[in-house]
Amino acid sequence: MKLLKVVAIVVALGFIILLASMCGEPEKAQAQEKAAALDKASPKTAFSYVGLKKCKPCHLKYQYNKWKEDPHAKAYTELASPKSLEVAKKLGLKEEPQKSAQCLSCHVTGYGAAENLKKDVTLEEGVSCEGCHGPGSSYWPMSVMKDLAAGKGDAKAVGLLAQTEESCKKCHNQKSPTYKPFDFKKALPVVAHAYPKEETK
To answer: What is the spatial distance between Cα 81 and Cα 71, in angstroms, rounded to a whole number?
Structure first.
């Protein structure tokens, strides 16, 4: 009789475990499908962030100095300001803004990228060159940049991205707790930093 009870308990437990695993299968399958879709939508690249130290030497006079005076350059340090701390408090953030994923995702370059792809970029850079132009490991060499400037080669193939309204609105949108209406056509000339025409001849 005791043996029958033990067998019945073991069978019941096995049935419960089987049901539990079956219940979890649809969720697991959905998660796998979602991951596969994201994987397909995001092409694999070996582009990595090289940081300001690689961009600055060739782009010092116009681009770097213009960026340095721009709010993008101060995006990370701004997170430590009294205003940012107040916003974080209102949002109920459990950590300070300079450590919050919610803030860092738009206030630093390369946030969310794999660690091995952003080892040469620092938080202190804020939103630097590669934050808008894409990871520079394949396009930063002078020879590549000269070819692209001369109309040779494919910028996208080396990871050099064009600035579009869509790319800017990944951060300049209503999800931002300090959002102000964003007009791409007006904003772009404010941050533009192309060489003067006489320099490109």
So the answer is: 13
Give 61's contacts (C-beta < 8 A, 6+ positions apart).
none
Q: CB–CB of 88/99 below 8 Å?
A: no
Q: How far is CA 69 from CA 81, 98, 126, 179, 181, in A?
A: 17, 21, 12, 21, 22
Phi-psi region of 151 (alpha: psi -120 to 50; beta: other; left: phi over 0): left
Residue in the block written with tokens 């520079």: 136
Roughly how many angstroms between the first and final C-alpha of the chain, as a whole number? 98
SS3 for 157? helix
Q: What's the whole-number mean pLDDT along residues 184-190?
A: 94
pTM metric for this prediction: 0.73
Residues whose CB is less than 8 angstroms from the CB of residue 66 and which lie 6 or more positions away in sequence, other chains included = 191, 193
Which tokens hold the place of 81? 């300001």
Residue 97: other Cβ atoms inside 10 A: 22
Mean pLDDT of all residues in 28-42: 41
CB under 8 Å to 147, separation ≥6 — which residues?
153
Structural domains of the chain, ranges and CATH numbers in brackets:
52-200 (1.10.1130.10)
Longest dimension (CA), the chain: 99
Q: How far apart are CA 66 and CA 111, in angstroms?
A: 23
